[in-house]
Amino acid sequence: MYLFIHRKDLRVADLRAFDYLRSKDAEGIHLLIIDPALTAQGRLTSHSGRNFVGQAASLLHSYAKAGKELHVLYGDPVHVTEALLQSHPIDEVVVHADYTPYARSRDERLQQTVHRLGRRWISIADAPLADLEAFPAYTGRSEPYKVFTPFYRMWSSFIMQSYNPMGITTIHDLNTVREISGRVAVPFALPEQIASALGGTAAVEGSVKSALLLDRFVREHLAAYAASRDAFAEGHTSGLSRFLNTGAISARQAYEATEGLPGAETWLRQLAWRDFYLYQAMYHEDYFRYEHLSDLSALTDKHFGAWASGATGIPIIDAAMTQLNRTGELPNRLRMVTAMFLTKNLLCPFTLGEQHFRLNLSDYDNTLNRGGWLWCSSLGYDAAPYFRIMNPATQSQTHDPVGSYIRRWLPHLAHLSDKEIHQPLSGAIVDLKASRARAIDVYRSIAKQP
Ligand code: FAD
C-alpha cells in the first residue's frame, strides 16, 4: 500500500506521481495535510491563503466526483505521516518535490522518519515545465546557470526533446490509480475554522476555472500577448499564476494548450522565467540568503508604510497598491514599478516589500516572489542593472496613456486630464528625479559588494 501526499499539486489530472503509482498497481491512501506552520499569522485568511483553501476545496470535490476519497488532516506533516505509517500497512510514501528552504527541511525530516520506520520515500519532480532535476545531466555543465539567456537556450532545446509531439498523453489522472476509501484512524482532525472554509468554498475554483481561463487566453489574447502583456489596464495576460502555483493546473497542461500557436513563444518565455527561478532555488544556495550577503545598512524603512498603504502621492504607485491590497491581484509590470520604487526611490530593503507581497498576493509563491524582488533590487543572478530605475510616471504614461487604471483604483483623481493624471501630486513623499540620483549612488556601492 502507498501513501500519496498532495502539496503544490492540487489537481487530479497530469500528475507525474500518478504515472509512477499506476506502474506499481498497488492500492493507496491519498492525503492533504494542512500544515499549521503555513497557516499561522493570518496567512490562512490572506489572499493567497484563501486561494489555497478554494483550490483545496475544489480538489476535494474532484475526488468525490470520481468516487474517490481524499483525506484532509491538520498537523505537522512529519507527525501526521508517522502516525499513519504506524497504523497502516503502508510501504512507500510518494510526493512531488518542493524546493523552498522550508519545504526542503520538512522533506528531509519526513524522509528520515519514513526510512527510520523502514518504508520507501519517493519524491518526483513535477512543478517546473522542464524536469530541472534531469537538466544538469542534459546540459553536461558542472556549474549551474546564472544568466537567463543561456539557460533559456538550453531549456528550449530540452523542452523540444522531452515532449511527445502528439501531446502529453502518457500522464495519468485519478481514475488510473487505485486509491482506497475508508476511515483513516489518526487524531489530526481539522480545526473548525478550516473545515468550514473547505466546505464552504465554491468548488469550481481550481482546475475547472484554470482550464476555462487558459482556453479563453489562448483564443483571445495569446496571438497579441507580446504587444499587450504590459498594457496593465486591459488585463490581457493569462491570469494563471495562482493556479500554477498551487498546482491546480500543471505547467505541462499550459504548454500543451499553446505550443506552436502564434504568440506562444513570448508566453512560454515567461514559463521559462518561472523555471529559471525554481532552478535557482534548487541549485544556488544563496538564493534565499541575499539579505545576509549584501550590506543593506544604508537602507531604511522610513517610507514603507506610505508605500504599503498606497499613500505616496505618486498616482500609479498608489493605484497599484490599492489594487493589490483589495484584490490580491497585481499585473507584472506594476509589480516591477512598485518594487523598484520601494527599493530604489524610497531606499527600503527589498525584504519589506517581499513580505508585503507575501501577505497580499493571491498568487504568492516564495520562490517566484523572491526572484522578482531580487531582480528589481539588482541583487541575485541576472538582475536588473543597479542604474535601471523605472520612472513610475513615465511607465504609467507609456503603458496606459489615458490613465484608465489610475481612474479605476483612485476615483478621486478621475477628474484629472490624461496628461496630468500620471504626474506626482503636490506633497508626494519623494521627488522622483532627486531620489533616483540618490538610489544610483547607494546601489552602486551595494552592487560592488562580492
Ligand atoms: P502571464 O503573463 O500569463 O505569464 C504566464 C505564467 O508565466 C505566469 O502565470 C507565471 O507562472 C509565469 N511568469 C510570468 N511572468 C513571470 C516572471 N516575471 N517571473 C517568473 N514567472 C513568471 N509570480 C508568481 O506567480 N508569484 C509571486 O509571488 C510573484 N511575485 C512577483 C514579485 C515581483 C516583485 C515581480 C516583479 C514579479 C512577481 N511574479 C510572481 C511574477 C509575475 O509578476 C506573475 O507571475 C504574473 O504577473 C502572473 O500573471 P499571469 O499569470 O497573468 O502571467
UniProtKB/TrEMBL annotation:
Signal peptide: none annotated. This is Deoxyribodipyrimidine photo-lyase type I. Keywords: Chromophore, FAD, Flavoprotein, Lyase. Binds 1 FAD per subunit. PANTHER family: CRYPTOCHROME, CRYPTOCHROME CIRCADIAN CLOCK 5 ISOFORM X1. FAD binds at residues 225, 237-241, 267, 270-277, 363-365. Residues 1-129 form the Photolyase/cryptochrome alpha/beta domain. Gene3D superfamilies: 1.25.40.80, DNA Cyclobutane Dipyrimidine Photolyase, subunit A, domain 3, HUPs. Belongs to the DNA photolyase family. Its cofactor is FAD. Pfam families: DNA_photolyase (PF00875), FAD_binding_7 (PF03441). InterPro entries: Crypto/Photolyase_FAD-like_sf, Crypto/Photolyase_N_sf, Cryptochr/Photolyase_FAD-bd, Cryptochrome/DNA_photolyase_1, DNA_photolyase_N, Rossmann-like_a/b/a_fold. GO terms for molecular function: deoxyribodipyrimidine photo-lyase activity; DNA binding; FAD binding. It comes from Paenibacillus prosopidis.
